Amino acid sequence: MDMNQQVMAGRSRPLVQPKKTARPDPVRTERVRRPVPAPTITAASRSSVDAAKATIQPKLMQQIDKNAAVQMPQEELAKELAELMRACLEEENIQLNQLEQRELVEALLHDMLGLGPLEPLLADESINDIMVNGPKQVYVERAGKLELTDVEFRDNAHVMNIARRWRRCCASPGGSAAPS
């Protein structure tokens, strides 16, 4: 065995791939489109979004007609909320990138119309159960294992507000689930 064969024997593949001699017929080949994963927000961005939300949410709630907001289609509400949010961010001199701004609008919508910070957990089909032990302690059960999440509520009052909303949702005639 010469030196090149010894070096190549230890590798799983050669450094230089051999050139392909025949090209596939372009008429017969099919291009498979794979969905591009949505960009994810980093921990630093999450912190920026949370800080911005804490600052501007009270101002936004004073400006919004809550009765009209509940009647609007969610897409229209999101657009109007985004405009108000941008104005508040500019007024407070808070800078967020586009991804962070979208995340902030989504978080505000979840707080206004849904179950706040629990919404992303409810959307995750791999989660079997959600347990809230306090504002900074939210667990989920996945595949029979308990995991501490990074989901946080503002405070105990926020937890109780979401719990009341959950209870109203489940107690309504259309409600089908009950918290465990």
Detailed description of the structure:
With 180 residues, this protein is mostly helical. It has two domains: 42-113, no CATH class; 116-173, Beta-Lactamase (2-Layer Sandwich), CATH 3.30.450. It is built from seven helices and three strands, in the order ααααααβββα. The protein has helices at residues 3-9, 43-63, 66-71, 74-91, 98-113, 119-123, 156-171; strands at 127-134, 137-142, 145-148. It has a three-stranded antiparallel beta sheet with strand order 1-2-3, with no helix packed on it. A hairpin with a 2-residue loop joins β2 (137-142) and β3. The longest helix is centred in the first third of the chain and has 21 residues, at 43-63. The radius of gyration is 25 Å and the shape is globular. The model is unreliable at 2-18 and 26-32 (pLDDT under 50).
